[in-house]
Amino acid sequence: MPSTPEHPAPAGRDDDFTRRLHGVVAAHLEVDPDDLKDHLDLADDLCMDSLAAAELLVVIEEDMGIALDANLLAGREHVTYGELKRLVSERAPVA
């Protein structure tokens, strides 16, 4: 039985958007895209501090053309990659 993502993209969000976001994040973090899983904690598993998280948001904005609040991740503890995808997807314009 196939597993479902911890935090699937919102209904209506196409796979191309998710693949692009995945590629942008993997490239910025310099990790193998196959190793970037939804359950990974940005801080604990991917060694991102608040500055690195802010830099990642800027990269996502520039590469994906999405306006993101610099404080999108501020005050959130144990944010996973899956949660990051969900937060970004919620703010992306629907094509």
List the helices and strands and how they pair.
Blueprint: H1 15-29, H2 50-64, H3 81-91
Helix pairs in contact: 1-2
Task: Explain how this protein is built.
It is a single chain. By secondary structure, the chain is mainly α. It has one domain: ACP-like (Non-ribosomal Peptide Synthetase Peptidyl Carrier Protein, Chain A, Orthogonal Bundle), CATH 1.10.1200.10. It is about 45% helix and about 0% strand. The protein contains 3 helices and no strands. Helix 1 (about 15-30) packs across helix 2 (about 50-65). The longest helix has 15 residues, at about 15-30. The radius of gyration is 13 Å and the shape is globular. This is Phosphopantetheine attachment site. It comes from Micromonospora nigra.
Number of helices, where a helix is a run of at least 4 consecutive DSSP H or I residues: 3
Using the alpha-carbon principal axes, give the shape. Answer: globular
Instruction: Please compute the radius of gyration using only Cα atoms.
Output: 13 Å
What is the domain total for the residues?
1
CATH 2nd-level architecture = Orthogonal Bundle
Mean pLDDT: 85
Number of strands: 0
CATH domain class name: Mainly Alpha
Beta-strand content bin: under 5%
Distance between the termini: 31 Å
* Helix and strand composition category: mainly alpha
CATH superfamily: ACP-like
CATH topology: Non-ribosomal Peptide Synthetase Peptidyl Carrier Protein, Chain A
Largest sheet: none
Report the uncertain regions: 1-12
Q: What's the helical proportion of residues?
A: 40-55%
User: What is the H-and-E element order?
Assistant: HHH
